[in-house]
Amino acid sequence: MARGKPQFWLKYNNNAEVLWLPVNPETINATSTYGYEDVSVSNLGEYTILGNNRQKEFTVSSFFPRDYNGSYCQYSKLKDPWEIVKTIERWQKSGRPVRFIVTNTPINIAVTIRSFEYEERGGEPGDVYYTLQLKEYTFIPNAKKSDPNAKKTNISAPKVTTYPARPSTRSTPTSYTVKSGDSLFKIAAKVYGNGDRWRDIYAKNKSVIGANPNALKPGQKLVIPK
Prior knowledge:
8-stranded antiparallel beta sheet, elongated, about 15% helix, two-stranded antiparallel ribbon, alpha+beta
């Protein structure tokens, strides 16, 4: 298989249901014994293989678009964003693991959905922004369904120990030219790896953008603060 743009998949119930994330996250925030790792998905040479024998945690943030845009959508036949939300919530409530896969990387792992946050934002009706927190699920060897102890064993319980964050090596550009379909959140996600920093960009460029932060126009050149 040729190495191309990675694909993000969630697969449930032995692949009976699958979800291909329509818009790639800029980064995956991964936690292991050794602290926090930013795993780049735009440059396949920068992903990290995490340590063994410890449960790994992943945080993935992106959005489910209502309408297709070839500049960032992985495929054209998009599902309704709120139907995707219902599907993920159903998987989460089932208490069963799902498989998290990022093609062209070593990430192919059973996980539980620990947290699922989402919102619809003004100026982008129909798009649903989300953050998924996933934690590695370890299957109990040789466990039988009739064994009551197997059900009581919480193998994916969160650990109390925390580890220091590793300094980011992301290179932040000094400027950005607005493209069709851009929003401040999407731009912040691209340049910082954190869409919530859109306010920093808006504050620096309010004279260019105007009173409405959602009124971006293609071709506008924005200053990107550090």
